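Hey L., structure's done. Input below.
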Amino acid sequence: MSWLTDHVRPKLRSLLQREVPDNLWTNCESCSQMLLIKELERNKKVCPHCGHHMRATAKERLAWTFDEGQYTTIDLPKVPVDPLHFRDSKRYTDRLKASRTKAGLDESLVVAHGKISGRDAVVAVMAFEFFAGTMGSALGEAFLAACRLAVLQKAPLIIFTASGGARMQEGVISLMQMPRTVIGIQVLREAGLPYIVVFTNPTTGGVSASFAMLGDIHVAEPNALIAFAGPRVIRDTVREELPEGFQRSEYLKDHGMIDTISARKDLPALLGRLIAMLTPQQQDDTPSKTDA
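Output:
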């Protein structure tokens, strides 16, 4: 028995049991179904069972939005790293360093330009993976750079919002980015250029109270949280039960704050149609196949 126990049984177990990598599967946050990660990525991080739209990185959104995933990012203006020398349980500079390492980004906004449905467009994407997409002075400068690039290229500006709001480590400097971004939008308006906002989950705080709510067209992904203060804070303040789906995309569309809701797979085509309608002069300026 010792031979069978010590040698044969372990051999059989090793043949029958295969090691499964930890990063092969994940669970849907909404329906808890187990999902193959590669299949989920092919489906643009949308659950095939319940349609739940999971969070996506800034780089993924850029690749999904531009034609054939081809785009060019721009270098963004540099700002003072820690203007208030802020420290809580950690130094602000240490938190920034950790976020940059984790996200592979310099800040919470990425700006790129390329083609959408064959037409020029400037796209800014807020990166929730960087410091929860919070708005500091660097984001304000990046947003203004996106506005200037759109004016230079005579192209529409599209922004994907995803944010926890103003960055408390920068105090009033963060709050000052609210009027600064509004000025950037005014520059677009004076140039006659469209400004399209795509709300993703979540969009909250000072971002929703400034440039996120000033689009010419408001598009949202399904069931995205779009709010200034979250529903728990409001419920505790007013001491009343809130309507079902309060502050979600569908509720806001029914109440006139969102123009349309689009599934992630349909977004590039929708944005292409909006650009075509809002910038018909681009079609006149684009060489036709017969002219080439």
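The radius of gyration is 23 Å. The chain has a mean pLDDT of 91.

-- N.
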